[in-house]
Specification:
The protein is 31% helix and 17% strand. By secondary structure, it is an alpha/beta fold. The structure holds iron/sulfur cluster (SF4).
């Protein structure tokens, strides 16, 4: 008798980047056979990038951790959950009892924001822990944009999104949406969307130190010196005022601070700023005129504008330009989403500078401290020093500044626990690791990215595979950790109690919020309507049903989790709509166009002088996003990507040829790296991608070790920060470059100083 073959097709969204593409996953007898784009997905319409295919390799990767592990010396041992939690309880509780809660630091990696469990249950764990030492990848990424939004509109998630499908002029600064597939601008198939913009007669203009894939498609591309976007943006603003190109719209009644902005712009005429930025004055004036004369336009900046010395000022200026040209909250301009889950807004005051870091006194930003402070908080003795550390889906040893100092500090911790898929450069230091389920073993809903999307979309993905017997889901691990730091035993009844408490807390909050559709309702009636579900599904069902499109618990025919389950390809809720003033949560109820803390930083911009001949920036590749992706063969195919890009004129000046090994030095570190000469980078700039440097002992990622590359964060200085948000400067690092020897080593790879 032949064995029966069980073939299945599963539909789900891809959680590996912000684009939220729909996937069609084919399985046979519990194994993924192949993955395609889901043509019936109303948002991605069949598009997917090479990372989407890699979910198969991630799921079946032999290096992936599948059981809790405890480290004894350099050896790792598989243990039961019970033993692992016992060890964690002992390790964390003894630090808390002896040194207090701030002695436990936490780092949350970027994958958490792509994870329903992480989004819903990490806040609960953090509240139970009660430590001020909370850090995340946000302060090496997008926090300047969120902080600007917090100050201007009153909420860090009220970020205006380019209405890319309707705009007629799209100015992209320090961003590469064709490769990132949109960032703070969720939209699958960015190449297709940008081509559609050009096909309808619109223009795409890119300003970037690199001729990126997006720049190559653009109608115009202009090089700009790294770190000078603030001068460029101010000189655009100057031109708009100077030439009478600003437009007054219906939003004028909802705005404070326009005259102050105009006064500030006076100091930045293009004729004075051109030499600083590397663009000529007429080009700057032409861009300003084109934004103003377009029927609708959208100015957008991302990583390059955020992770530099004036990240918050840049993020603010972009919105100011969109406002003064009449493009804020307007079709074809930049608009606010109406997310299906979330968006019941209430305001309690700005989440900024409510406390400060212990060593360099950096202000808290949106509930966390800048990760540039992490190493000094670990290695500087005194009350409040971090002595125990928790990481969830993060690899700060590779992704945060001055990695060498951080790694050294981690070696002296009393205790460390991680929730992760791999023993990587960071988790190799842990005492205990809990295995995170793969994306195919957990359910998914993009809570964050539907708040940042170019259309309003709602799409729920059930797990493709059951977890192994006894394996905990991530939300259960987080609740057990919450129980044990909250002085309870991490038993199942504690998990159930915390899970119930969290949903009841949400309901109670919303029935008192006069902006919520369930304002004034009976909490018992709402709780009863959610019976039959638990964990993330219950929370999500609640958020959908009480959200703007929800059924409001039998009040209307609307969204619920059940409805999404009946629509496995997702539901398109339509194009973005005008939302001002409804979306404004500032104390004044207005758009604050000149927030005091940002305006104060303009003085620093005016006085800044960067005299370095050579500046280092990062770059992104379509096949790489997080460091763990370097362990998947499908994403590591092809030529080495961890190289230093230099312009041939710099090569000639430095006597470095294509393929030579160069020494790159900064104030804090020194690395050796293979050089690629290319006219795609402007003279005076070097570029190395981040997330590499897989040559540390104890890392158990075989493919990554074969493609180790070099850790560019050995060069970034943790003391160089955006003064407002504390975000680390990863673009515009002063470096010197010199030649060592010719020729490529095995795999064309590079050497780093061992750390
Ligand atoms: S673009 Fe992003 S969401 Fe789409 S398949 Fe690639 S990694 Fe996944």
């Amino acid at each position: 008798m032949m064995d029966s073959v069980k073939e299945d097709v599963h539909y789900r969204t891809c959680p590996l980047c912000e684009a939220t593409c729909g996937l069609e996953i084919h399985t046979v007898n519990g194994e993924v056979t192949h993955i395609e784009g889901d043509k019936q997905d109303p948002f991605s319409k069949g598009y997917l990038c090479p990372k989407g295919f890699s979910l198969k390799e991630l799921h079946h990767d032999k290096d992936r951790i599948r059981k809790p592990m405890i480290r004894k010396g350099a050896e790792w041992f598989t243990v039961s959950y019970e033993e692992a939690f016992k060890e964690v309880r002992k390790g964390l509780r003894s630090v808390i009892e002896m040194h207090g809660r701030d002695a436990v630091g936490v780092y949350l990696g970027n994958p958490n924001v792509h994870n329903l469990s992480g989004m819903l249950y990490l806040p609960l764990f953090l509240r139970a822990l009660g430590s001020r030492n909370q850090y995340s990848a946000s302060t090496v990424d997008q926090i300047p944009k969120q902080l600007a939004a917090e100050f201007m509109y009153g909420s860090d998630f009220s970020i205006p999104i380019p209405d890319i499908d309707r705009t007629q002029y799209f100015l992209v600064i320090g961003a590469n949406p064709i490769v990132s597939n949109g960032s703070l601008m969720t939209g699958p198939n960015m190449r297709g969307r940008l081509k559609a913009l050009q096909d309808r007669g619109g223009r795409l203009v890119v300003v970037d130190p690199v001729r990126t894939a997006t720049a190559k498609l653009a109608d115009d591309h202009h090089f700009i010196k790294p770190g000078t976007d603030g001068y460029f943006l101010f000189s655009i603003l100057y031109t708009l005022f100077d030439e009478g190109l600003t437009k007054e719209t219906h939003l004028a009644q909802h705005v404070n601070g326009l005259s102050e902005v105009k006064k500030l712009a006076n100091d930045f005429p293009p004729e004075k700023m051109a030499a600083v930025c590397g663009l000529d004055a007429e080009t700057i004036r032409t861009i300003a005129r084109d934004i103003s004369s377009a029927t609708c336009a959208s100015v957008y900046g991302r990583m390059g504008t955020c992770t530099q010395a004036f990240g918050t000022v840049n993020s603010w200026l972009i919105d100011v330009i969109n406002y003064v040209t009449g493009n804020l909250d307007r079709e074809g301009g930049v608009m606010f989403t109406t997310p299906a889950a979330g968006g019941k807004m209430s305001k309690k005051g700005y989440r900024f500078d409510r406390f400060r870091s212990r060593v360099s006194r950096m202000p808290e930003v949106l509930g966390e401290l800048p990760v540039a402070c992490l190493a000094e908080e670990m290695d500087t003795p005194g009350e409040g020093q971090i002595r125990a550390f928790v990481t969830v889906a993060g690899n700060p040893v590779l992704s945060t500044p001055n990695s060498k100092r951080l790694q050294n500090a981690m070696e002296n911790l009393d205790f460390m626990v991680s929730v992760d898929c791999y023993i990587n450069e960071t988790t190799r230091n842990a005492n205990v690791i809990f295995p995170a389920p793969t994306p195919l073993e957990r359910s998914h809903y993009d809570l964050s990215f539907y708040q940042l999307s170019v259309r309003n979309i709602s799409h729920y993905s059930p797990p493709v595979f059951e977890k192994n017997e006894g394996q905990l889901d991530e939300w259960e691990i987080l609740l057990k950790l919450a129980a044990l730091v909250g002085e309870e035993e991490p038993h199942q009844d504690a998990v159930n109690k915390l899970d119930d408490a969290s949903i009841h807390y949400l309901i109670k909050k919303d029935i008192k919020n006069d902006r919520s559709p369930i304002y004034g309702r009976n909490p018992k009636e709402i709780s009863e309507a959610l019976e039959g579900r638990k964990g993330p599904e219950r929370m999500l069902d609640y958020m959908l049903r009480s959200g703007p499109y929800g059924d409001h618990f039998k009040q209307q025919d609307g969204l619920s989790l059940k409805k999404l389950e009946e629509n496995p390809h997702g539901i398109d809720l339509g194009a973005l709509k005008s939302r001002i003033p409804e979306v404004l949560l500032t104390h004044t109820g207005k758009i604050e166009l000149a927030p005091e803390l940002i305006v104060d930083d303009v003085t620093r911009l005016k006085n800044e002088t960067n005299k370095s001949d050579m500046l280092l920036i990062g770059r992104r590749n379509l096949r790489s996003n997080n460091s763990w992706m370097h362990n998947l063969p499908v994403l590591m195919k092809g030529k080495d990507r961890c190289t230093l890009w230099l312009n041939p004129t710099d090569g000639e000046r430095l006597k470095i040829q294509d393929g030579d090994v160069a020494v790159v030095e900064s104030e804090v570190g020194r690395i050796e790296v293979i050089v690629e000469l290319t006219n795609d980078i402007m003279p005076g700039v070097g570029s190395i991608p981040h997330g590499y440097g897989h040559d540390l002992s104890g890392v158990k990622m075989a493919v990554a070790k074969d493609n180790k590359g070099v850790n560019t964060n050995l060069l970034s200085d943790e003391k160089r920060r955006d003064a407002v948000s504390g975000t680390a400067v990863l673009n515009g690092i002063p470096i010197t470059v010199s030649k060592t020897k010719s020729g490529r080593e095995k795999h064309g790879t590079v050497r780093t100083e061992s750390i």
